[in-house]
């Protein structure tokens, strides 16, 4: 009885210890969950502050524009400003469309090469299997012929005095039949392998290679440089960059006559450019020249180092003003690159 009481007390203590341990675990889990919620709260609070600050800046900018546009003499200035911003977006759209067309073309080329390699590999394996089937068939036919010959010889050996010779031929027959059966089994196995190879699905396309993405990005840089040269007349490229980096109240484009001239020039240059992004003269030559000069940080990087464009003779194909479009981030170039 005393022993039973001791066992009951021991069991009760074990249950208590287990519950205590579980409470500690729950407490640790609650602390962890609480910390995660705190982190989420602070993150959302920071985002809210940033959003409110952005809203305030946008409202202040809108108020400034409204005050400025309320002045009749500022109307032409504002027209040029927003036209320049529209030009910047149009150039970015042009680069985006250009990069997308190149991406599709490059994907088609790489996919065709991948399938070509796959089909060549499959054909090579099929030929190996067919050669092996032919060799196994020859071995099986030779074994079958020997079996027939041995059976004929054994049939002619009658009488008790040929007992040992018949037994010897029987052993050889058994061996040849085993060889023949093994060859037939191997042939069936090879036929199954050939069917499996024939039924292999095409491999999944892994996406553009690093080299493919580099080719596209270099072409995008070349086109961005040609866009800069195209809009360099009347310094429009520089004016467009100022329009997207500075507020309207800080910029002046001259008299009504000067503003009218600029708007007409911008409109004409944009019409000249429309729909030409795959047939721009000198684009291919310039891209090849850039490719010979650009450097990458490592073997996996697809966007060149901007400084590697410095000092390059970009007038090889682009006649006109030259600039490091990557360093100046013209046309929001980094949004266009294929990563």
Tell me briefly what this model is.
The protein is mainly alpha-helical and 339 residues long.
Structural write-up:
With 339 residues, the protein is mainly alpha-helical. It folds into 2 domains: 176 residues, no CATH class; 79 residues. The chain is built from 7 helices and no strands. The longest helix is centred in the middle third of the chain and has 82 residues.
Total separate domains: 2
Query: What's the rounded overall pLDDT mean?
Result: 83
State the share of residues found in helices, binned by percent: over 70%
Regions with little confidence, pLDDT below 50 for 5+ residues:
314-318
Q: Give a quick account of the main beta sheet: strands, pairing sense, barrel closure.
A: none
Order of helices and strands: HHHHHHH
Our count of helices gives: 7
Instruction: Specify the structural class.
Output: mainly alpha
End-to-end Cα distance, whole Å, is 79 Å
Number of strands: 0
**What Rg is obtained from the alpha carbons, in whole angstroms?**
40 Å
- Tell me, what's the shape? elongated
* Residue fraction in strands: under 5%
């Amino acid at each position: 009885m005393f022993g039973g009481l001791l066992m009951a007390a021991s069991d009760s203590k074990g249950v208590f210890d287990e519950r205590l341990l579980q409470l500690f675990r729950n407490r640790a889990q609650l602390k962890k969950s609480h910390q995660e919620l705190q982190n989420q709260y602070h993150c959302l609070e920071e985002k809210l502050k940033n959003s409110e600050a952005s809203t305030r800046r946008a409202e202040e900018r809108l108020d400034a524009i409204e005050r400025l546009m309320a002045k009749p003499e500022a109307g032409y200035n504002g027209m040029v400003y927003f036209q320049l911003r529209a030009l910047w977006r149009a150039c970015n759209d042009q680069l985006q469309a250009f990069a997308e067309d190149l991406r599709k073309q490059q994907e088609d080329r790489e996919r065709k090469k991948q399938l070509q390699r796959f089909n060549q590999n499959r054909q090579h394996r099929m030929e190996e299997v067919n050669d092996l089937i032919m060799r196994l068939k020859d071995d099986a036919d030779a074994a079958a012929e020997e079996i027939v010959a041995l059976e004929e010889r054994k049939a002619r050996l009658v009488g008790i005095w040929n007992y040992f010779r018949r037994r010897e031929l029987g052993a050889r027959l058994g061996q040849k039949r085993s060889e023949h059966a093994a060859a037939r089994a191997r042939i069936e196995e090879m036929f199954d392998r050939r069917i499996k190879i024939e039924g292999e699905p095409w491999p999944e396309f892994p996406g553009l290679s690093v080299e493919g993405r580099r080719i596209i990005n270099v072409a995008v840089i070349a086109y961005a440089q040609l866009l800069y040269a195209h809009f360099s007349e009347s310094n429009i490229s520089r004016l467009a960059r100022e329009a997207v980096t500075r507020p309207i109240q800080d910029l002046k484009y001259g008299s009504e006559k000067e503003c009218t001239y600029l708007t007409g020039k911008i409109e004409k240059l944009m019409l000249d450019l429309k729909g030409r992004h795959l047939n721009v003269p000198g684009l291919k030559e310039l891209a090849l020249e850039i490719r010979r000069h650009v450097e990458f940080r490592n073997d996996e990087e697809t966007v060149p180092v901007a400084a590697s464009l410095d000092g390059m003779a970009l007038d090889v194909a682009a006649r006109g003003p030259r600039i490091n479009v990557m360093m100046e981030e013209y046309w929001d170039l980094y949004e266009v690159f294929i990563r």
